[in-house]
């Protein structure tokens, strides 16, 4: 069986800052690396609370998905990493605006630390 695999690179999301790709298209799916609240224009962390950070993360995801030819509506699974589970409700309020109808499957976990000490990271799998 032939496995088609393409690297996704776009300025609509933060540049990869290590040995990973923004996303991979493989056999009808798009796998995005975890996104943190980096502004793609400046490569700087967005200041603000969990809601501001979640907003930036989801805009990054939206941009990378668009560059890969798909959209949030085709996301089938998300994983949300929170520095503090007490911020779940505030994160979820913003998340719900982006995934209001037929939301994807989701896991949410609290972690002790995230890259650049941000409060939230989200990774997604979508249909291509």
SSE layout and pairing:
Elements: E1 5-8, E2 23-26, E3 29-32, E4 38-39, E5 44-45, H1 50-67, E6 75-82, H2 88-98, E7 105-110, E8 120-127
Parallel strand pairs: 6-7
Antiparallel strand pairs: 1-2, 2-3, 3-8, 4-5, 6-8
Strand-pairing-aware structural class: alpha+beta
Residue share in β-strands: 25-35%
Beginning-to-end CA distance, first to last residue: 19 Å
Classified by CATH, the class is Alpha Beta
Short note summarizing the structure:
With about 130 residues, the protein is α+β, with helices and mostly antiparallel strands. About 25% of the residues lie in helices and about 30% in strands.
3D structure, described in words:
The protein is α+β, with helices and mostly antiparallel strands. It has one domain: 60s Ribosomal Protein L30, Chain: A. It has 2 helices and 8 strands, in the order E-E-E-E-E-H-E-H-E-E. The strands form 2 sheets. A 6-stranded mixed sheet has the order 1-2-3-8-6-7, with helices on one face. Strands 4-5 form a two-stranded antiparallel sheet. Helix 1 (50-67) packs parallel to helix 2. The model has no long low-confidence stretch (mean pLDDT 96).
Provide keyphrases for this structure:
about 130 residues; alpha+beta; 60s Ribosomal Protein L30, Chain: A; six-stranded mixed β-sheet; 2 helices; 8 strands; about 25% helix
């Amino acid at each position: 069986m032939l496995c088609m695999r393409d690297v996704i690179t776009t300025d609509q999301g933060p540049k990869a800052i290590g040995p990973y790709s923004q996303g991979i298209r493989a056999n009808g799916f798009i796998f995005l690396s975890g996104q943190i609240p980096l502004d793609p224009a400046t490569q700087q962390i967005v200041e603000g609370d969990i809601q501001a950070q979640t907003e930036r993360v989801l805009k990054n995801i939206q941009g990378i998905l668009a560059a890969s030819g798909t959209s949030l509506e085709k996301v089938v699974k998300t994983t949300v990493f929170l520095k503090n589970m007490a911020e779940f409700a505030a994160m979820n309020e913003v998340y719900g605006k982006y995934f209001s109808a037929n939301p994807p499957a989701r896991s949410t976990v609290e972690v002790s630390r995230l890259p650049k000490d941000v409060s939230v990271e989200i990774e997604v799998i979508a249909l291509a």
